[in-house]
Amino acid sequence: MKLSRHLVLACLVPFSALTAQEAAEEKPKAELNEYQQAFLNLPEKERADFLKAFGEAQRLFSQKRIFDTIDKLTEAEKIFADSPELHNLLGACQVEFRAFDKAMVHFKRADELQPNEPTILFNIGELHFVTKNWKACEETFTRVLDMVKDEPRQLALSRLVEFKLLLTKLKLGKEDEVASMAEKYDFLDDSPYPYYAEAALHYHAGRELEAEAAIARAARIFQNPAILAPWQDTMIEYGFIKSLFGGLEEGEGE
pLDDT for 101-132, tens place per residue? Predict the structure, then answer.
């Protein structure tokens, strides 16, 4: 399988937790995380300088100016190194370079600072997925799904995680579980899940035309490319659909 750098990032969910300053306005100091309390202990100017540098890094990253992003994050890190948002974005930058080992170091550091944050765990699971570390992928995505499955605002993330988990179990040979998961949602579901689950089973069985037909139905119903992009990218990452870009070879990371 070939993997493009931007295809990985399409599925990496940016960490969107409150900054320490915003969090302090919403809950008592006793309820703040350790890193948030540490941030509040900084002088006001240092807090402002950090937020300015980090905000600029986010802007640069959105423009795919990765080296400039890292420069700004380095500037922010000199002020306050224990920010999960900072490490999550540094990890995303390393993904752009396909330096997955370095990315994992930053994502795991973010997880240490903000334990059990589903978006950070999703990023960790996504790295396991694209590097074909299937057992770790199953464990991580199962944890994420348990966190988000009952949250209406997390429906899109929940369905995508469940689909990636379906594919992971397929790779692990758990076909009974896969069959059950594929039938879990019908075509009235507010996500592309049933179409892509059907397509995955067809691809797995060598029925390529039927798989393409299922994906075409999803495209007719969900006409916003932004909705379909992470699902299509997942199929490319997995190897069911060929990528136009270079990347990982089949078997790497297994």
Answer: 999 999 999 999 999 999 899 999 999 999 99
Cα 174 from Cα 92, distance rounded (Å): 31
DSSP annotation of 30 reads G
Between CA 200 and CA 215 the distance in angstroms is 10
- CA dist., res. 236 & res. 229, Å (int): 11
Among 251, 247, 235, 229, which residue's Cα sits nearest to residue 4?
247
Contact 237, 129 (CB under 8 A): yes
How far, in Å, CA of 212 to CA of 208, rounded?
A: 6
Rounded distance, CA 43 to CA 155, Å? 39
CA dihedral 190, 195, 198, 201 (to 10 degrees): -110
CB count, 10 Å around CB of 86? Answer: 25
Question: What's the whole-model pTM score?
Answer: 0.84
Task: Kindly state the DSSP code that residue 145 receives in the 8-state scheme.
Answer: H
Mean pLDDT split into 10-residue runs, the chain, 254 residues: 34 40 52 88 95 95 95 97 95 94 96 92 94 97 94 91 98 96 93 97 97 97 93 94 57 42
pLDDT at residue number 138? 98
User: In a 10 Å sphere around its CB, with 0-12 CB exposed, 13-18 middle and 19+ buried, how is residue 150 labelled?
Assistant: exposed
> Any idea which residue has 């069911």 for tokens?
240
pLDDT tens per residue across span 203-244: 999 999 999 999 999 999 999 999 999 999 999 999 999 865
User: How far is CA 149 from each of CA 101, 115, 140, 180, 240, rounded to the nearest angstrom?
Assistant: 29, 18, 14, 17, 26
> Can you tell me which residue has the tokens 């594929």?
182
